[in-house]
Each structure stands twice: as structure tokens, then as C-alpha cells.
TrEMBL record:
This is Gluconate 2-dehydrogenase subunit 3 family protein. It comes from the Bacteria. It holds the Pfam family Gluconate_2-dh3.
Amino acid sequence: MNRREALKGTAMIFGYALTGSTVAALMQSCESGPKLDWTPKVLSKEQAQILSRIVDRVLPETETPGGLDVGVDQFIDKMLNNVFPEVIQNGFAGGIDSFNQEAKNLHGKDFVKLEGEQQDDVIRIFEEKSGPLPGSMWGFSFGEPKEFPFYRMMKELALIGYFHSEKIGKEVLAYNPIPGPYEGCIPYSDVGKIWTE
């Protein structure tokens, strides 16, 4: 893989329009569960296990469901497979490998074999050193990152998957439609001059 092409390809991350129906369809096909009981389409089994542990640490289960409870790890793999070109897929997979190598450098073990606090240390390092994703519009980048923005892309996809999941939408978030329901046949005396305010 050509590194320059991979970096340029990251500009396409924001060039894709993710509609609510696309995200919802991908989320509905995800299964939940704390263990890797699904087959990844883009990532290797080991990379998918690392991704699942990262998601579990970034979006843990508390009084609300965690990221693994709503299948965020599977959502990310499906988004990579269905939305992003191969250059982005390869960059993301390489980012997971770099993430795991950082864990080995710090603690001498693979990320999935570390204790929770040690995993948090690795995540904290990536959080601090990862700059914002380069801005883009309609697939054209306004800047070129120095390296593939794996962590920021992973975190963004995790949050999109989490907050667009059916379980979170129904059980955690409160939906308040604005401007509200349309009532086309209301007596004028009930409304008064409110329409001018």
C-alpha cells in the first residue's frame, strides 16, 4: 500500500454522506455481546478483538448499555466494508496494528492481554497524540495528515454507531421532535396570534 495514497484517502472519510437510514440498517444487523462471536469482514480476527477491547474501554457498560452491548465493534467493521474504499480499510487495519504495537512497547503484552488500567494508558496516549481529523468537503481534503488518523476515525465511528443504535435511541436518549407535530386543522381561537411570534 502506498502511504501517500492512504493518507490522501483519509480525506474521503468525511466526503461520504452517512444517512440515518444507512446507519440504522447497519446497526440493526449487528449482534450484541461482550465476546467476539462474529466474523469480521475487513479486519482480521485479532484486529477485531483489539477493536472490541478498545470499544469496551471507550464506551463501557455503566447504568447505560456499553458499546459492545449494542454491537459498535461490528458496526465499525461493517462501515469499513460497506462505505470506505480499500485504501481506508487498509489504513484502519494498520492503525489497529500500530495501536497494539504501542501496547507492547509500553507494557510488553498485546492490548487484549493487558489489565484495564494499562489499556486505559494506551488509549490515553492515542487520545493525547491524535489531532483532529483533516477537514474536507465533498471528498476534497483541506489538509493532509502526517499519519493515518486511526484513533480519531475509530472514535468517531464508535460514537456514530452507539448513538444511532436502536437500543440507545429507545432506552437512553429522549427524542424531542422540533418543531413538533403538524396540526393542520386547529380552530383559530385555539391558536390566536401565536403564528406571528
